[in-house]
Write a structure and sequence with these properties.
Layout: H1 3-15, H2 20-29, H3 34-72, E1 87-89, E2 92-94, H4 111-120, E3 137-142, E4 145-151, E5 155-159, E6 167-171, H5 173-180, H6 185-194, E7 199-202, H7 206-212, H8 214-221
Parallel strand pairs: 3-6
Antiparallel strand pairs: 1-2, 3-4, 4-5, 6-7
Helix pairs in contact: 1-3, 2-3, 5-6
Length: about 220
């Protein structure tokens, strides 16, 4: 019988949960020499060992890559201007926590609002995937309007949701105005995350979210 056929049978025996001693005795009962039988069994186990080594190597490499990329990432919080600072609403100038926000329907939400929001809640801490170098991409749903934000050296936001994103954030216009009008935006976001009025929906896999820093950021906001 050829080696390939014997190797195939050994693998079937391994899948059937037979012990190495049982497999070895089967060879000896059929007249095979001990040295030859051990060689066939070793070859049958080789792919599993190689796969295990590959998985271990990948885990170590992936962990080191994330740690190194995070350590040497020079992302800093952007110095963005609050869009409300010079916005006039019903005759009042609205600043950080100043002014009348009761008539928010007249405010047109532009990409600058979303970029400022994301910057204030720490999205600038995200970074590109250390292996694929794909930048973080976030979709923000504001009522029935969508915005796409790419995080690189800064936060670039455009209208629309045509690209594949990592996560989607959903909130209302009223909540956005409240966040932009406070000195403690992260605290407001935490409260709304807790009561479900801000929804964060993962769209990418957990590995991607971990590699780009989303899981740590979400943990910081909890």
């Amino acid at each position: 019988m050829e080696d390939k056929e014997l190797i195939r049978r050994v693998r079937n025996s391994i899948r059937a949960k037979k012990s190495q001693a049982q497999i070895l005795n089967g060879f000896l009962d059929k007249g095979y020499k001990l040295e030859y039988a051990e060689k066939i069994i070793a070859k049958a186990k080789l792919p599993k060992r190689v796969f295990g080594i590959f998985v271990l190597f990948f885990i170590v490499f992936f962990s080191i890559s994330i740690a190194s990329y995070t350590l040497f990432s020079n992302n800093e919080k952007g110095n963005l201007k609050n869009p409300l600072d010079s916005l006039s609403v019903t005759g009042n100038v609205v600043g950080l926590g100043v002014g009348d926000l009761s008539d928010i329907e007249s405010i047109e939400i532009t990409p600058e609002f979303i970029s400022y929001l994301l910057n204030e809640v720490g999205v600038w801490r995200l970074h590109a995937h250390p292996i694929t170098f794909e930048k973080p991409l976030i979709i923000t749903q504001l009522d029935d309007k969508y915005f796409s934000s790419t995080i690189g050296e800064g936060i670039e936001t455009i209208v629309g949701s045509g690209q594949e994103a990592d996560v989607q954030i959903g909130l209302s216009k009223e909540i956005l105005m409240e966040i932009l009008s406070t000195d403690e935006p992260e605290e407001i976001v935490r409260n709304y995350l807790d009561n479900g009025e801000i929804l964060v929906t993962p769209l990418a896999g957990e590995t991607t979210l971990l590699a780009k820093g989303y899981l740590k950021l979400y943990g910081d906001l909890e």
